[in-house]
Amino acid sequence: MTAPFTMPRSRLLVFRESDGVRVHTSEYERSLDQCRVLDRLEVVDGAGHVLPVADVQPHRIRFAGVTLTFDGLRALSIGGDASARVRLVFPDGSTVEQPVGSGLRIDVADRGALVSAQPAAAHEDALAVLEREWDAWFDRCPRVREDLQDMAAFCWWVLGANIVELPALEGARAIVPSKIGYVGLWQWDAYFIAVGLRHGDPELAREQLELAFRFPRENGQLPDVVHEQGVLATSDDLPESDRATLRRARSQVADPTAPVPLTKPPLAAWALRKVLEAEDAPEWAAAQLERVIRSQDWWFAGPERNGSDLDGDGLPEYGHPYSSGLDDSPVFDGPIPTTAPDLAAYLVQQDREIAALAARFLPGHDVAPHLARAERTAALLMERLWDPAERRFIARGPGSGDDATGHDGERIASDTVVGLMPLRVEGLPQDARTALIEAIDDPRRYALEWGLPTVSAADPDFSSERMWRGPIWINTSALIAEGLETAGEPERARALREQTVHLVIHGGGPHEYFNPRTGFKAEHATTAFAWSAALFIDLAVELSR
User: Fold this and answer.
1) DSSP letter at 27?
2) CA–CA distance from 443 to each of 200, 384, 468, 502 (Å)?
3) In the prediction, which pLDDT does 400 show?
4) Using an 8 Å Cβ cutoff, are 307 and 217 in contact?
5) Taking residues 377-384, what's their average pLDDT?
6) Using one digit for the tens of pLDDT, what is the confidence trace for 18-60?
7) Are 226 and 214 in contact (CB under 8 A)?
8) Distance between CA 189 and CA 197 in Å, rounded?
9) 220: helix, coil or strand?
10) Is residue 2 over pLDDT 80?
11) What is the pLDDT of residues 143-156, one digit of tens each?
12) Range 392-407 average pLDDT
């Protein structure tokens, strides 16, 4: 009920529906309602009573004496009590009822279903094949602390369940954020997923990064999404549903007059380093690093190269809320493009990560320009985005500022998690470090019972339920924990990690985001969310050392 019954690489999803189940396919930018295969599948005994779902394992669903499993990627198999009947209700309202007999097979094609009889041995074979596949997957599940192991196993299941094949890319395996509504490889998600996946399947972790890096634009920009129909790299590629959402939010970039690049924050080198910590792959690393370097240069390129330093002041901007990863943050309620402290912090650390990786994997590559640019960016971060009076980092929009600092750009007052990300910058001045730690410790702002909200509880835009406007996300909590480590606060870092893993356990699984007041899934959050699962595993491994 909190996650679909599915299998690695399949696009079929089976959900509990009263005493039966319903079946959908999983497709890019199509809702579950648009992808209905069966509105109801019920098992009925000889007396006409509907048999409820008795229990579920990764390889099968059991209705008393009848079981349902997968038979390949696009078919379901039913077998068991020959006297039972299976009742199928199709989306057009038609109903079919057939005896289980020796067994039934339901083939799915083009969101339709064809039911046929099959030998009893075929069903037993299908059960055994899927059980072996899941057993092999679980054999790779990292072993962690006893109190974290059950949830780690569930999170490892989520990662396997969210594998899809992308046929247009020679059958590449992408772990999608969720087969419920997020069927594609989002760049940021791929980084977080790879970081958790590396602990049990380094090869598949590398495959996620390779897909994220495979389709750079000519200027080096990495696309936001790689999906089965192509890539999403500019606002021209957005589906109409996204444009409609932006219009409802009155976003200034709902219908831009010129295409706006779409990407995700620069954590590519960070993810690359972490994946290589699990298993060295020098030739592969060198090829990927070349693309990461070009992407980093794109961030600092001016508008003449369609880059992201849109005003040429040395501090790149987010040209679109989607490129921040925090689409609905109140930081983007104001004018866009936005100069944000999290982006500056990511860029500082990415140049430093690139320098360290290049020294190892790209002999002869001059690392001095990366280190020099990191120092310049760090200085600009403090000079332009640090507010010494309020002792916090703030974002700025375009235009001329008129506040006491005299800096260009309209001041964006929202107190959000983007202002805490500079904690990840090595060498941040002591006063700034102290102020950010105090904010994290302040129960009026960020020290809420269940964890670190994405907007300060004292901010007028705080909401416990609205995406990126207050709920806890596992990725921002994990990044801030790293920032506390960087700031010389290992005990605080560990405490935040412990709080985060216990939130997932309390909340019932790796949901997309959590209500910070209750610790449960926010109403509109997706369940079985891959980056939450991956980062739970990464945090659990770290806490088990």
Assistant:
1) -
2) 37, 28, 19, 19
3) 53
4) no
5) 98
6) 999 999 999 988 889 999 999 999 999 988 999 999 999 999 9
7) yes
8) 12
9) coil
10) no
11) 999 999 999 999 99
12) 70
Q: Is the pLDDT at 402 greater than 50, yes or no?
A: no
Report yes or no: 268 and 212 within 8 Å, Cβ to Cβ.
Answer: yes
CB 390 within 8 A of CB 436: no
Token output for 77: 């198999």
pLDDT score for 407: 52
Q: What is the rounded distance in angstroms from the CA atom of residue 399 to the CA atom of residue 272?
A: 36
Question: Comparing C-alpha atoms, which of 79, 154, 338 is closest to residue 70?
Answer: 79
Mode of pairing for the β-strands spanning 85-89 and 36-44: antiparallel
The amino acid at residue 147 is: D
Which CATH architecture group holds 140-543?
Alpha/alpha barrel (1.50)
Q: What percent of the chain has pLDDT over 90?
A: 88
Angle at Cα 307 formed by Cα 303 and Cα 312, nearest 5°? Answer: 55
Count of CB atoms situated within 10 Å of the CB of 53: 19
pLDDT at residue 242 greater than cutoff 70: yes
* pLDDT surpassing 70 at residue 110: yes
Please give the pLDDT value at position 405.
42
Picking from 209, 359, 186, 199, the residue whose alpha carbon sits closest to that of residue 269 is: 209
Q: Where are the alpha helices (DSSP H) in 332-453?
A: 341-361, 368-385, 430-441
Cα separation of 373 and 390, whole Å? 27
3-state SS, 234-257, equals EHHHCCHHHHHHHHHCCCCCCCCC
Q: What are phi and psi of 27, to 5 degrees?
A: -140, 150
pLDDT at 396: 97
Alpha carbon separation from 45 to 21, 38, 63, 233 (Å, rounded): 16, 20, 10, 53
By C-alpha distance, which of 509, 505, 514, 391 is closest to 452? 514
User: What is the spatial distance between Cα 274 and Cα 280, in angstroms, rounded to a whole number?
Assistant: 10
Q: How far apart are CA 263 and CA 227, in angstroms?
A: 14
Single-letter residue type at 132: R
Give the count of beta carbons closer than 10 Å to the beta carbon of residue 240: 8
First to last CA, the chain: 33
Q: Which helix (H) or strand (E) holds 62?
A: strand 60-63
Mean pLDDT of 451-480: 98
pLDDT at position 406 over 50: no
Q: Judge whether residue 190 has pLDDT over 50.
A: yes
Q: What is the pLDDT of residue 408?
A: 67
Cβ contact 542:199 at 8 Å = no
Vertex 264 angle, CA 34 and 153, to 5°: 65
Q: Which residue type is seen at 137?
A: W
pLDDT tens track for 263-288: 999 999 999 999 999 999 999 999 99
Q: Cα(77)–Cα(128) distance, rounded to whole angstroms? A: 12
Alpha carbons 130 and 7: distance in angstroms, whole number: 8
Who contacts 196 (Cβ-Cβ below 8 Å, separation ≥6)? 155, 159, 531, 533, 534, 535, 536, 537, 538
Domain boundaries, the chain: 12-137, 140-543
